[in-house]
From TrEMBL:
Presence of keyword DNA-binding: yes
Skewed-composition ranges (Basic and acidic residues): 116-131
Residues spanning the membrane: none
Species, as recorded: Chitinophaga costaii
Annotated GO MF terms: DNA binding; ribosomal large subunit binding; single-stranded RNA binding
Record protein name field: Heat shock protein Hsp15
Amino acid sequence: MATTTEKLRIDKYLWAIRIFKTRTQAAAACDGGKVKLHGTSVKASRAVAVGDKYDIRAESRKWTIEVTGLLDHRLQYAEAIKYYVDITSEEDLQLNQRVAASFHTGKRPSKIGRPTKLDRRDLDDFMRNED
């Protein structure tokens, strides 16, 4: 665990507390203006301090967190959540739920697109009987 005298980068901290899956994603979010301290975008190299409050916007979610401890390496989720307090507003929590419900999973909706094997066999039978 990092001590309070060490400098800890915000991208490393966000990765360690499991807000982002990779440190690269955390750095990209910082560079893209998606991580803010007091309404101002922060760079990935900014030092984290206990008591800082960050607004974080990810692809499918929005958080507001307060730093309660410094963590410089990844731990289990149950341990990592002890290093911050989620102070996300009720309005943003409801937005997160709506977005999660409609978030695209990459799967194709049922009965749309390519025919199934059964559909293809039925089409083949139909085409053979017509000739």
